[in-house]
Amino acid sequence: MADAEGGSGVSAKIITSETINPAYKRIKYGLRGPLDQRSQVIEEELAQGQAKPFTEVVKHIGDPQGLQGQKPITFMRQVLCLLTYPDLLQDERFPSDVKKRVREILSEKNGGTISSYTSSQGLKIVRQQIADFISTRDGYPEDLSNIYLTNGGGEAIRIVLKALMTADQEGPGRAGVMIPIPEYPLYSGRLLELNGYQIPYFLNEDDNWQLEMGELQRALNSSRPHCVPRALVLINPGNPTGQVLTYENIREVIKFCHRERLVLFADEVYQDNIYADGCAFHSCRKVLHDLGEEYRDFQLVSLHCSAKSHFGECALRGGYYQLTGFDEDVKSFFHNRMTLYSCPNIYGQVAMGIVCQPPKPGDDSYALYDKERTAIQKSMKEKAGMTTRFLNSLAGIQCNTVQGAMYAFPRVLLPDKAIQAAKDQGLTPDSLYASELLEATGQFVAPGSVMGQKEGTYHFRITIIPPLEKTVHQYEQFKRFHEDFMKKYEG
Amino acid sequence: MADAEGGSGVSAKIITSETINPAYKRIKYGLRGPLDQRSQVIEEELAQGQAKPFTEVVKHIGDPQGLQGQKPITFMRQVLCLLTYPDLLQDERFPSDVKKRVREILSEKNGGTISSYTSSQGLKIVRQQIADFISTRDGYPEDLSNIYLTNGGGEAIRIVLKALMTADQEGPGRAGVMIPIPEYPLYSGRLLELNGYQIPYFLNEDDNWQLEMGELQRALNSSRPHCVPRALVLINPGNPTGQVLTYENIREVIKFCHRERLVLFADEVYQDNIYADGCAFHSCRKVLHDLGEEYRDFQLVSLHCSAKSHFGECALRGGYYQLTGFDEDVKSFFHNRMTLYSCPNIYGQVAMGIVCQPPKPGDDSYALYDKERTAIQKSMKEKAGMTTRFLNSLAGIQCNTVQGAMYAFPRVLLPDKAIQAAKDQGLTPDSLYASELLEATGQFVAPGSVMGQKEGTYHFRITIIPPLEKTVHQYEQFKRFHEDFMKKYEG
């Protein structure tokens, strides 16, 4: 049979590792790789009472509440609670602005219930909340028709990257997408699936991970024989690199994309996570509009989600992408695309609206909201500074300032013997480091090779999320491990 | 520039209707087509106070709570409520089994909060609930490693259909999938996007929409020159056709797939919606296992979701697909595929677990749950019978018995003049009928051409969901419309 070819003999099964869609075989998402699996085994071993030099596994992933560093924002949870169980709308323990928000949402829903389907692009009232947020943030009005709600940021990335692809899947006519290195590996993972051509450009580690125009040009030029470059992905604030781009840097990037005819895909999910003094978040949309009429036809896609910031509602899977400069007929294709799922999940939708429109001064919930937000932001800011200082205090580690997002991406100057030992074990040197760290301390950091790095350099990604009181102890363990590791492999 | 070719002149934009991924242009989801858009306009006109011969738009889509026919099941909402806002775990108004369920789920979550990411395949505790449900339902044990939670049934359909595709996207090596006609149009819509080859097989309207082996064979044989047939989609109970397949019929289909080397994709989302006396739901998985050892290598994918049955939680987007007969290496590709989204939304996950493991006799919530479920099921059963009888009472309409699911799919014997009038307006005859019905009564039914039908026959899909007290009035309106329509176009 045609679909059983190529196997060793005829398999009785139809879908085998030989015959499954090759796109599925290309997928690789490094953050959930072997180290993640090993950390799960260690968790089970701990639960079974096995003795270890640590009592818990700490996963350095962007999961603010999961790492126990962050309590949920009360307003968010109260709104979702009453939406779920409207009997409590009579309960006096819930503030009036919570009830108002819930009634507004239910009034737009068929049957007055959260359970009914919404329009495919998402509830109008939520898209209006988002549009108002964008208008205020940027000082340029936004319309709800440009906003498409999704099940989290990951779905938005898939939908937009897929739209950028061409019919050519193999030859030089296939779509190319510029991605930063280091990157959030969902971009390369998804491009592998889609058979898009990856055009890696390196962030400048010596300039706190800003983008350099010469490097962008080099990367683009070298890609030309292999693909049709279509877009540039910019992650600001940076994941895994923790930088916040300057206004001027973003302006240069927009000019570059304009000159080179590239769509700009702005991943701005960490826009509320800014810590370093003198840093501010500038949306690509604002910088673009500031450039004026000449850039009227520029195409920009902006991404946001409910999982980060002081809200940190990861598993609700709220997110949106917003289109600037796309014609109505193209928008209708995006709209059609969304209809195939009926609608994004309603909790994620509502959460995204709350992230964009939290309580305001004068609202019943404002004082508590402000207190909670301030405490979280203060703690994150403290840990950002502490993490940078701690890492730089270790011999053989160099770390840029954590200006935003939730991560540091330090460079480790690994001894030659460690590099050789890794080679002997069939590992990348940074994986060896991360693996030994996990076994010694229970701390799971992502090796730099998962996010990409310049050849001959080695990094890892660590979050600033764990709560302050745990951080101190974790740093002690880390320091001991690092010193032991360097000694073990010294020349 | 290479990516601006083919347009009329050079567009300043990069992503235009000429250059967007052609896959997005192929997408077509008939249920959210022009009639749906017109119904939204009518709703706005009503809201603005425009006079119409009706006071509300009734959308005949599978949205049980949205159509006000169905109140949510209290247990479901109480669990979701306490998960969201665990302060209420101290509240005496909530039953002990609700609290127990909530504590069980939170204990499996990092940080003890619903917000943290779960494993990509979904929470273990939820997959265990589903595995236990399947084991009990079928009498054959199931393992949680075969269960993959998704954001609703639509996502499961996409993931599985995509896995079935081959590398060949255009030629005779592309994957073929047998789909029923009439069908739930997400199947054809998704196959259009994926460039899969559709192999339509006709359900037998004269035998209450059962599957005929001769017709399956005819459809398959005729497809052979054009594709590599990979799978057969079976929807049971049927959407839009409302039939419940007999045990014997399912057995024949499995034997057919086995002989012809096809994966069976069993869409069983309406498995709890059974009304007609003498009908029972038989899962494909049980029938397969009953066939014994000879079918050990048979590959089956089974689909379920939280949106239907007496729960009807549509916008929570809970769903799963379950794999039977897939090797570990193939399962790992499915697993990798899920990692690209981090995890499915947590409310959908929990809801799916509750659908599979509702309160049991002896539980605090059982009495109320049983009362609510029985009332909904009784009402649906009554409306199923009523709808069949009503439709058959109209001259020129023939309707099979609504045995299950939520729909009737009656045939309308349209007068020649109506067929001609439709042609003159560039509409299919069934769209003309549905369009005039919408304008006259506010009732939005899906024209048969959206779901597919034998050439020269005309149908529409109507739900049995609206509440009983409204149904009577709606039928009167409908009857008046139908008689007027037939008179208007009589020969």
From TrEMBL, chains A, B:
Keyword set, alphabetical order: Aminotransferase, Pyridoxal phosphate, Transferase
Matching InterPro entries: ALAT1/2-like, Aminotransferase_I/II_large, PyrdxlP-dep_Trfase, PyrdxlP-dep_Trfase_major, PyrdxlP-dep_Trfase_small
GO biological process: L-alanine catabolic process
Pathway the protein contributes to: Amino-acid degradation; L-alanine degradation via transaminase pathway; pyruvate from L-alanine: step 1/1
Record flagged with keyword Transferase: yes
Top-rank taxon, per record: Eukaryota
Aminotransferase class I/classII large domain ranges (all copies): 95-464
Similarity comment: Belongs to the class-I pyridoxal-phosphate-dependent aminotransferase family. Alanine aminotransferase subfamily.
Quaternary structure (record): Homodimer.
EC number, UniProt record: 2.6.1.2
Protein name listed in UniProt: alanine transaminase
Keyword Cell membrane attributed: no
Known cofactor(s): pyridoxal 5'-phosphate
Catalysed reactions, as listed in the record: L-alanine + 2-oxoglutarate = pyruvate + L-glutamate
Matching Pfam families: Aminotran_1_2
A Gene Ontology molecular function term of the record: pyridoxal phosphate binding
Protein source organism: Nematostella vectensis
